[in-house]
């Protein structure tokens, strides 16, 4: 297991740069080894692994607790400025919750999310009951490590079942004040409050990298991770916020998108996503 958390995966180009650093959050396994397959993203890239991996990856308060802790970890290496967040599968969901945690932070601004095949977590088919146990263990990993990986994956699935994607409307006092004002204003001046005082809060814009293939199941059934595979935005149309700007297809199925032979193509799509979210660079 790596020691530094967040771990610097790519140092980025030498010298001053205006490019926002990218922080990638671990997938359900709790590890970030897959992100080391990526080619250059021409910016600093950090990875956060599950610091509770050895204990099965458990967090008492689930995804919200993880997000609060990871937000603090991010600020330990990026105390201020613009940042990109993202991750594969569970990591994409965590990045959304972390962005909500950082919404009111005056020093750090999340300018975008890169969600790597992260489907909307509210499945209509028994809460993703038919998930595959397939995952990529580090080459040469021993049975004890594989058991911990399985424990972390099972824990992540349970946390996803228990999690509701965050609302950006909660806690927005400016809209409550606007609502109260509109209730007390005369009909003659009602038009003055017809428009909100500002744009309603919403998640940062996201780019979804979507696996083009289905996970093959031996019994011919649809894998739980593929419930929304036919949907352009992997089911996020059901979320209260329309935050996914673009969906880009990537080679492979959910579990093979980081395979070594697909690394170059995935890197190209990652760079495209970064450029769309960080056009000033």
Automatic annotation (TrEMBL):
The keyword Zinc appears for this protein: no
Residue span(s) of domain Thioesterase: 21-124
Database matches in InterPro entries: AB_hydrolase_fold (IPR029058), Thioesterase (IPR001031)
GO molecular function: hydrolase activity
The entry's keywords: Hydrolase
Highest taxon listed in the record's lineage: Eukaryota
Any single Pfam family the record assigns to this protein: Thioesterase
Protein name, as recorded: Alpha/beta-hydrolase
Native source organism of the sequence: Hyaloscypha bicolor E
């Amino acid at each position: 297991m790596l020691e530094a958390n967040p771990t610097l995966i790519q140092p980025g180009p030498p010298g001053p740069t205006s490019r926002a650093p990218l922080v990638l959050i671990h997938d359900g396994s709790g590890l970030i080894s897959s992100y080391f397959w990526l080619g250059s993203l021409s910016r600093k890239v950090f990875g956060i692994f599950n610091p509770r991996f050895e204990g099965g990856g458990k967090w008492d308060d689930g995804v919200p607790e993880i997000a609060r802790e990871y937000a603090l970890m991010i600020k330990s290496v990026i105390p201020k400025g613009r940042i990109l967040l993202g991750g594969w599968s569970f990591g994409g969901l965590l990045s959304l919750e972390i962005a909500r945690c950082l919404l009111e932070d005056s020093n750090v601004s999340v300018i975008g999310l890169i969600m790597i095949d992260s489907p909307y977590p509210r499945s209509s088919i028994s809460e993703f009951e038919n998930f595959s146990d397939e995952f990529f263990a580090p080459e040469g990993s021993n049975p004890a490590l594989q058991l911990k990986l399985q424990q972390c994956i099972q824990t992540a699935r349970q946390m996803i079942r228990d999690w509701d994607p965050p609302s950006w409307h909660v806690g927005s006092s400016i809209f409550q004040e606007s609502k109260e004002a509109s209730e007390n204003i005369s009909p003659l001046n009602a038009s003055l409050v017809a428009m909100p005082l500002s744009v309603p809060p919403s998640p940062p814009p996201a780019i979804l990298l979507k696996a083009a293939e289905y996970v093959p199941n031996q019994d011919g059934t649809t894998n739980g991770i593929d419930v929304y595979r036919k949907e352009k935005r992997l089911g996020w149309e059901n979320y209260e916020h329309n935050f996914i700007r673009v969906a880009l297809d990537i080679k492979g199925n959910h579990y093979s998108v980081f395979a070594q032979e697909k690394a170059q193509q995935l890197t190209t799509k990652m760079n495209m996503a970064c450029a769309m979210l960080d056009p000033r660079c």
